[in-house]
Amino acid sequence: MIIAIDGHSACGKSTLAKDLAKELGITHIDSGAMYRAVTLYFRKRNIFPNDLEGIRKNLPGLEISIVPGETCTVMLNGDVVTESIRASDINDWVSDYAKIPEIRKKLVELQRSMAKRGSVVMDGRDIGSVVFPNATIKFFLTADIRTRTNRRLAELRAKGIPAAYEAVKANLIRRDQIDSNREDSPLIQCEDAIVIDNSKLDVADQQDVALRYIAERTQIG
Description:
Elements: E1 2-7, H1 13-24, E2 27-30, H2 31-44, H3 52-58, E3 64-67, E4 73-76, E5 79-80, H4 88-98, H5 101-115, E6 120-124, H6 127-131, E7 137-142, H7 145-158, H8 165-181, E8 194-197, H9 203-218
Parallel strand pairs: 1-6, 1-7, 2-6, 7-8
Antiparallel strand pairs: 3-4, 4-5
């Protein structure tokens, strides 16, 4: 079984994916974390998104793995980077790297190979449209920009990362524009996706809604 969850930044995709994985006893793969790891990889090497030659030259040396658990552990070339990929600098650059076709191709291959090991719930921006167009069930999460900004602020502050409301809001809007308008695998709402607006839903309510749809579609639960 493959559950695909797509949506804009700070819509609660990873939270829902983790909750469903735990409830259903399947593996959660955070594709966004993989793109963040790519961003960290190139930022450490001072290779910018417009340096396509540098990206192509260094891409073969990139190794990313996700270790399932209570919280997904993200490994980059053998190092644990689960926390460092959440830094503000990574937030600022991740969409710029994620729109590069060579990077997307490499990560889609990795994501598909991970799903061959068993049932998964994967969240991102092109999971239902590109990575797994034949997913068992697809969700598209959305929320208003104020809610999303407050969620991201809370996330950053909980990690001790200073952030201002307007700066976070501007970053989310910019990422929306890049993700939705890139030429390769733009963020779209699939026709067969179930839309969940969680602007006024708490985590438990969101999970209940998703589980009801899964039960209806798959007879699970």
